[in-house]
Amino acid sequence: MKNKKKNHFSKIIRFLMTALTSLLIVLILIIILMVSRIQGTARVVNYAGLVRGKTQQIIKLEDAGMPQDEMIADVEGYIKGLRFGSEELDLVSLDDKAFQAKMEELDAYFDTLKQEIDLVRQVGYENTNIIQKSETFFSLCDVATGLAETYAQRIATRLGQFEALTIIDIVILIFMILYELIKALRYAKVNRELKTKVYLDEATGLPNKNVSTHLLTPFNK
Among 90, 123, 133, 158, which has the minimal tally of Cβ within 10 Å of its Cβ? Predict the structure, then answer.
């Protein structure tokens, strides 16, 4: 009965070790994917800030009578990349409704800003609403950047939770492996002692003439 209980307990330990090992593999894969996502999100935050910075530069130069069509095209590309992702810019599309809604609004407002820039080229910035509209655009950029940062923080928090689970999983596995190792060493020691008792006479230390011809069965785990 005692041996059956030990055998049953050993099977449970082995099953748990297999389950924990499988879980560890899944956790590691999730962590790898999340690290990749965080890296992509960091670039989104940088480019969201770059949209504001470049647009400020465009407005200053346009107000000074220096057309900046190339920079305007760059900003349009950044905005599209932030909305839909871009292999060229190495940008991912964030799976965040609030950020995507704000980027859609930002995209639409940049078209309005471009129309105002065209007007500046015709009548001068003093006769347009370029300053007010650019300030509204900058505010949208700030909100979009903040949303991207909030999303990145959420991912980082989840990553920390998965890392904690991974550590717990590893620690439990280590204890189980140590338990199995100690048990195996103990069984090996007991088997050696049994073999000594069977094959050697305790009084003389010589081979026992009455040794059993039956093979020693393995110690029941």
Answer: 123
